[in-house]
Amino acid sequence: TILYAHPADFVARVRAAIPDEGIARIDADTTASPKSWQAAITAIGAANAAVDDVFSGRADNVFVAARPPGHHAEKTTAMGFCLFNTAAIAARYAQKKHGVERVAIVDWDVHHGNGTQDIFWDDPSVLYCSTHQMPLYPGTGAKNETGAGNIVNAPLAPQTGSEVFRDAFLSRVLPALDNFAPDLIIISAGFDAHHRDPLAEINLTEDDFDWATGQLMQRAARHSGNRLVSLLEGGYDLQGLAFSVAAHVGRLMKG
Questions:
Q1: Among 202, 121, 137, CA closest to 168
Q2: How is domain 2-253 classified at the CATH fold level?
Q3: Which DSSP string corresponds to 141-156?
Q4: Rounded to whole angstroms, how far apart are CA atoms 17 and 20?
Q5: Beta strands in the chain (DSSP E)
Q6: What is the pLDDT of residues 112-124, one digit of tens each?
Q7: Annotated catalytic, 194?
Q8: Per-residue pLDDT reduced to its tens digit, 9-25
Q9: Which pLDDT value is given to residue 226?
């Protein structure tokens, strides 16, 4: 199913870059070890299994705790710690396996998901909404990047926090979701906007992730029969990550 979002020659290049021993450098930020291929395809398999679970009725929502992350992986470029775009593959899998017409991907990782935007840039069957710090890696995600009208970016200024993040959700992300009325919501759930995280300057707390989770669960109840799949993306302070994931999963379990 990797081929749902990436061409075969790119997949072959990534596989060839996986070393037999030691560490291989994919780009300035992205390295691979002998188990990286297995980790990446296991993450993809878990995401697809989560999609199966919400469409079979085994679960209303699923959180997939897997790495490497995926949202920086473009159609033909592995970058930003990401080899393949797990969220994009899961969205395509839902369309191909379960006949889903409209998938929404909501990305609250502190870095913009340039890969997801790249893959769905001209595909109105997938809505991509992102809150992210700007300026920050990878440099994409301006409000005027709108694709086929299916890309909604809500950049956040450095050193802002809860109020600005929640306003971005309420004013841009949630209205776009309601207008799109998705059959499935996928969250690119990065937790590096937490105030403890060393890679950015957005000062969120666990309560913000709890709140955002609840807002997306309300939209899932309204539009997609509660179907929601959450995929772990970034988060690089272990305490902030642990507390944020606990709040996120706790809220999902209340559904």
A1: 202
A2: Arginase; Chain A (3.40.800)
A3: --TT--TTTTEEEEEE
A4: 9
A5: 24-25, 31-32, 61-64, 103-107, 126-133, 151-156, 160-161, 184-189, 202-203, 228-232
A6: 999 999 999 999 9
A7: no
A8: 999 999 999 999 999 99
A9: 98
> CB under 8 Å to 183, separation ≥6 — which residues?
94, 100, 101, 102, 103, 223, 224, 227
Rounded (10°) CA dihedral 17, 118, 231, 142: 130
What's the whole-model pTM score? Answer: 0.98
Of the candidates 72, 111, 194, 223, the residue annotated as catalytic is 72
State both tokens at 189.
């759930």
Q: Is the peptide bond before 34 cis (omega within 30 degrees of 0)?
A: no
Q: What are phi and psi of 93, to 5 degrees?
A: -60, -45
Sign of the C-alpha dihedral computed for residues 246, 247, 248 and 251 taken in this order: positive
In contact, 205 and 245? CB cutoff 8 Å: no
Tokens of 79: 């970058």
